[in-house]
Amino acid sequence: MQLSEIYGAGKLGLSYELYPPKTEAGLEALFTHLKELVAFQPSYITCTYGAGGSVSNTTLDIVSRVHSEFGLPVGAHLTCVGLTKDDMRAYLADAQERGVDYIIALRGDPPKGQERFEAVAGGFAHANELVALIRNEFPRFGVVVAGYPETHPEAPNRQSDLDYLKQKVDAGADAVITQLFYDNSDFFRFRDRCVAMGIEVPIVPGILPVTSLTQIQRISSNCGANLPPELLSRLEAQADDPQGQFDVGVYHATRQVEELAHGGCAGIHFYVLNKSRAAATILRALTLSTKYAERR
Ligand SMILES: Cc1cc2nc3c(=O)[nH]c(=O)nc-3n(C[C@H](O)[C@H](O)[C@H](O)COP(=O)(O)OP(=O)(O)OC[C@H]3O[C@@H](n4cnc5c(N)ncnc54)[C@H](O)[C@@H]3O)c2cc1C
Fold first, then answer.
1. Between the CA of residue 253 and those of 18, 89, 270, what are the distances in Å?
2. 161 lines ligand 1 (CB under 6 A)
3. Phi–psi pair at 263, nearest 5 degrees
4. Which helix (H) or strand (E) holds 204?
5. In 3D, which of 132, 18, 138 has the Cα closest to residue 74?
6. Is any ligand 1 atom within 6 A of the Cβ of residue 108?
7. What is the mean pLDDT of residues 81-99?
8. How far is residue 238's CA from residue 248's CA, in Å, rounded to a whole number?
9. Alpha-carbon distances of 118 from 84, 108, 122, 126, 162, rounded to whole Å
């Protein structure tokens, strides 16, 4: 199915993002959790590519298995980290062979211990170049790129980050999925700015439900996400109660998704972190919400 159909007028495309587990047990747990999430009828499922720069065919193994077990469309992430154009072509050819539908085309973060991103000889420095390669040589893939409601941490300013996002879309991206955020007004402002600049593809919010205080502190220091003081103080009030922290985080994400669905978003992308409990609790609550149900 084309991304334009998934995110078509009046629709609310639902997608989940997995990551490659390190162990066989982790892989089996992932599929057990995914079974529960598939009941909510996602439009497609994606798997990240070697965050931190390790070369990974596991991504394709996972999405192929998701496709064959659940019969759902799948997206494979690909970064430019440590790869030449020919390495990327080989990965894309393999993905095509295995029936992958979409590529989430990324530059990637600098590998551990390296401060700045450096393209390898014969590789790419920015995601827009990868998008162009896919469009020219693998035109059947739907292409998704990353967007940053709170601006990418390396960008010198907000406007240049938006200009580069537009460059990725102009290179042929079909949709944008955003970095996680906890304040919807950051997303809505970002979407308005994109629209004002002539970015016409769907801009899909990426949601990572907080499930613990330590998790949100780590995430926010890694990607610089703004934490609404109200969310933080509610989590802190549950400092001695892990279940209380989970409940606060899930409540916040449920309200976020309901408002985003009501605010005309084309879809919702859950960073499920290979677990079902948080996303399933949110989706179960939302099926009872008319604001959400009207869109699905
Ligand atoms: C939905 C989503 C999925 C992700 N999946 C993965 C994954 O699977 N694996 C992984 O390792 N990481 C993943 N990431 C993280 C991502 O790789 C990092 O955020 C990375 O730092 C930037 O990637 P990008 O594709 O946005 O890069 P780019 O779009 O290349 O942007 C990177 C920086 O360079 C600037 N820039 C862009 N183009 C140009 C240009 N032409 N000239 C000069 N400056 C430019 C931008 O403003 C930005 O500051 C994901 C992020 C998101 C939001």
1. 18, 37, 10
2. yes
3. -85, 15
4. strand 203-207
5. 18
6. yes
7. 96
8. 8
9. 12, 10, 11, 10, 21
Q: Sort 4 into a burial class: Cβ within 10 Å, 0-12 / 13-18 / 19+.
A: middle
Quick: pLDDT tens for 196-228: 999 999 999 999 999 999 998 888 788 878 889
Q: How far is CA 114 from CA 2, 5, 109, 126, 221, in A?
A: 37, 40, 9, 17, 17
Architecture of the domain made up of 3-212+248-293: Alpha-Beta Barrel (3.20)
The model's pLDDT over 268-287, given as tens digits with 9 standing for 90+, comes to 999 999 999 999 999 999 99
CA distance 18 to 53: 17
**Pair 85, 133: CB distance under 8 Å:** yes
Kindly report the pTM of this predicted structure: 0.97
Atom of ligand 1 nearest to the CA of 19: 8
pLDDT for the residue 226: 87
Q: Is residue 66 within 8 Å of 34, Cβ to Cβ?
A: yes
CA 234 – CA 180 distance, rounded (Å): 19
Catalytically active residues are 17
- Extents of the domains making up the chain: 3-212+248-293
